[in-house]
Write a structure and sequence with these properties.
heterodimer, A: 214 residues, mainly alpha, two-stranded antiparallel ribbon, 9 helices, 5 strands, globular, B: seven-stranded mixed β-sheet, 12 helices, 11 strands, protein kinase inhibitor activity (chain A), calcium (chain A)
Chain lengths: 214, 372
């Protein structure tokens, strides 16, 4: 009774689709079972049992991201009530590190996917644009812990940031032009040249903890 | 990322680069879209694996110890290993188990023969120790005691890390203690009641606020009387799975007196001593223990420690905790063992947010809101 040498077909399919190895998938499956308490799906409430997540200021947005149908590569929109293991893996795969054997095109696609994930986190009303209000929301959530900070300061930070974004994306605007919001293309433009790969990945290990016997 | 900032865990390798370094990067005093990346990465790491929940389930072993309960996924690898495993089962269930149950019954009947009325101190101490030693023999546990010279001689508080009720048995086989513990029902409650008859123990209800003050008072009185036995306390407050030491509750460190730390480490290759009280009842746990290979453990008696003048109880508790963890080779976690049953306090979340605020907004005044 040790590690299996033959991998079931569905596992291989999952591995191909999400890019994880079969050992990593097994580990994550165990974690999934722990979170879901041995059910087949996870709901929002199951994320309450993670103490480490509690002190993350954007906890709400992260949990939201797991249930966001846009991240789950489903054609529909809105929020799912519960996700199964496949969906769980899909979301986790956004945080995979880049691999050595990726070519230019794959790298570009990978980067775009990560940025899209980030974009969805900002764009909470799913309209494809980050408006000033949404930006303010994120800044406020991140800075809400500080009692010395007034709402005004958070707003002015957000406003300043939006102006900067507008100048990158649209260039000089006339006095009566209104900047509606950052679209995904603008978002991509803002990140051009900046290396996000190292910031947005989690190192998944390849440790095999099951005994071998020869 | 510098290699020394990466800490290896089971599924993922956490990036322990401090928030300051990661977020600041380009400029202090300005907010950046990338900051959200840092927090979302941390969030993903927490979802993939968190340090705390890992401690409340049995340790995952690198190499299997032939107990099916330690291996979450049973796969077939070779007939040889399967044959060894089946032999193991036969030995454990048909040989070790009946032998141990027999020994257990003998132990209880022999000790029960002692005359009831004589509660002379010495005799009852001996009874307690013999009882515990017989109990430990039942588990065929070679227990190695180190540094016996540090054992508490007269009064004082003995403090140890907690993994299971067996801790009490093991320590009691080498010395006599008064116990402080949670009131249990069922079989455990019966055992507790019978222990109460031989010496003075302090029992309380975990959720009772009033009880805590009462307990502290009783402990204070107890150690003031040098003639009484040293008190055995487990400051973690609950069973942890023996890979790390969690937050020590400061109550017992405020009382004063000398603290004798004891480190207990079980060898996971022979059996899993951890009692997951949310998952197994005491009967299931006892059955698991009796059908393991053995309970092997090392007990180190550490030199006594005293609270210094300007030190507060929390700092002292952390100091003792670090000493125990270092001796037993376990990691130190600041988290509260009570998280097994409760949720995290709001104050932790606010702490993190405050730190981030301080980076982005210097000296309470707003930066110029640049996007970098």
């Amino acid at each position: 009774m040790g590690s299996a040498h033959s991998v079931p077909a569905e596992m291989r399919e999952l591995a191909d689709r999400t890019g994880f190895t079969s050992e990593q998938i097994e580990h994550l499956h165990r974690r999934f079972k722990q979170l879901s308490q041995d059910q087949l799906t996870i709901r929002k409430e199951n994320f309450d049992s993670i103490p480490d997540l509690e002190f993350n200021p954007i906890r709400g947005k992260i949990v939201h991201a797991f249930f966001d149908k846009r991240n789950l590569r489903q054609e529909s929109d809105g929020l799912a009530d519960e996700i199964n293991f496949e969906d769980f893996l899909t979301i986790m795969s956004y945080f995979r590190p880049i691999e050595m054997n990726m070519d230019e095109e794959q790298l570009e696609r990978f980067r775009k996917e990560k940025l899209k994930f980030l974009f969805h986190m900002y764009d909470s009303d799913h309209d494809g644009k980050i408006t000033l209000q949404e930006y303010r929301n994120v800044v406020e959530e991140l800075l809400s812990g500080n009692p010395h900070l007034e709402k005004e300061s958070a707003r002015s930070i957000a406003d300043g940031a939006m102006m900067e974004a507008a100048s990158i994306c649209v260039g000089q605007m006339g006095p009566d032009q209104v900047y509606e919001g950052i679209t995904f293309e603008d978002f991509l433009k803002m990140w051009q040249g900046i290396d996000i790969e190292t910031k947005m990945h989690v190192r998944f290990l390849n440790v095999d903890t099951i005994a071998h016997c020869y | 990322m510098a290699p020394e900032n990466l800490i290896s865990t089971g599924i993922i390798q956490r990036d322990e680069t401090p928030m300051e370094k990661e977020v600041v990067g380009r400029c202090r005093g300005c907010f950046s879209l990338a900051d959200v990346m840092y927090f979302s990465k941390k969030g993903c790491e927490a979802v993939a694996e968190d340090e705390v929940t890992r401690r409340f389930s049995s340790e995952e072993l690198l190499s299997w110890n032939l107990l099916s309960r330690t291996n979450a996924n049973l796969h077939h690898v070779s007939w040889k290993l399967a044959a060894v495993w089946v032999t193991g089962i036969l030995i454990r269930y048909c040989l070790l188990l009946p032998f141990r149950i027999l020994l257990l019954m003998l132990a209880t009947t022999v000790v029960g023969q002692f005359p009831n009325g004589r509660v002379k101190g010495w005799l009852s101490n001996q009874v307690q120790m013999i009882c515990a030693t017989l109990g430990v023999r039942c588990l065929s546990g070679p227990v190695h005691f180190h540094n016996r010279e540090n054992k508490p001689q007269e009064g004082g508080i003995c403090v140890a890390n907690h993994t299971s009720p067996l801790d009490v048995l093991i320590l009691a086989s080498d010395g006599c203690y008064s116990l402080v513990g949670q009131v249990h029902g069922g079989l455990m409650g019966l055992i507790q009641k019978s222990c109460m008859q031989t010496s003075q123990h302090v029992l309380f209800e975990r959720s009772e606020m009033k009880d805590r003050h009462l307990v502290r008072k009783k402990i204070r009185e107890h150690i003031a009387d040098k003639a009484k036995l040293p008190i055995l306390i487990f400051p973690e407050g609950t069973c942890i799975n023996n890979t790390s030491v969690m937050m020590f509750k400061k109550g017992s460190f405020e009382v004063g007196g000398t603290i004798h730390p004891v480190a207990i480490k079980y060898d996971p290759r022979f059996g899993d001593a951890f009692w997951n009280s949310t998952k197994h009842s005491i009967m299931t746990y006892a059955f698991n223990v009796l059908t393991s290979w053995a309970i092997v453990c090392n007990v180190w008696y550490l030199p006594p420690m005293v609270k210094e003048e300007e030190e507060d109880a929390v700092h002292f508790a952390d100091r003792v905790k670090a000493v125990i963890a270092a001796r037993a080779g376990m990691s130190v976690l600041p988290w509260d063992g009570g998280l097994k049953r409760k949720k995290v306090k709001e104050s932790f979340k606010e702490e993190q947010q405050k730190r981030y605020c301080q980076i982005v907004i210097e000296n309470g005044s707003v930066g110029n809101g640049n996007v970098c």
